[in-house]
Amino acid sequence: MAQERLLPAGVTAWVLGSGAAGHEVQCVGVARALGLEPVVKAVRPRALFRALSPMGPVDFRDSPRRAGSLLAPPFPDIAIAAGRVTIPYLRALKRASGGAVFTVCLQDPRTGAGTADVIWVQE
After folding, report:
1. Does residue 101 contact residue 118 with C-beta atoms inside 8 Å?
2. What residues pair up with 119 in beta bridges, in sequence order?
3. pTM, whole model, 2 decimals?
4. Among residues 56, 34, 35, which one has the least CA distance to residue 45?
5. Which stretches does DSSP call E strand in the chain?
6. For 42-81, how does the pLDDT look when each residue is reduced to its tens digit (9 = 90+)?
7. How far is CA 31 from CA 40, 64, 92, in A?
8. CA distance 90 to 3
9. Whole-angstrom distance, CA of residue 58 vs CA of residue 48
10. How far apart are the first and last CA of the chain?
11. With 21 labelled, which of 14, 42, 43, 64 sits at a CA distance of 20 to 30 A?
């Protein structure tokens, strides 16, 4: 049985995943529940940038301004992330898109309410 599409045709989604299966599967599940088939982007920052997460910047090699990087345009309509390593990437994507990307954070980002458009934290 085909999943009902809850959003207009043409809406695109990225899942920013750090390799933690529990995080990534939640994000993909939310996207699919919305009727989307997301592109999964593997967030693999170098050790320094990983250690600075969630407050630090994205790894410079993944900058949205760098052609061919993980976060290079064209940007999606929706980005979903979970886990502290993905938080700088979610913020950078929102900033680089001029606020056009709707951002969703699953789990507590430990960076405050301004981290994403929607933050979902389980009880």
Report:
1. no
2. 105
3. 0.91
4. 56
5. 13-17, 39-42, 78-82, 102-106, 118-120
6. 999 999 999 999 999 999 999 999 999 999 999 999 999 9
7. 11, 22, 20
8. 26
9. 10
10. 31
11. 64
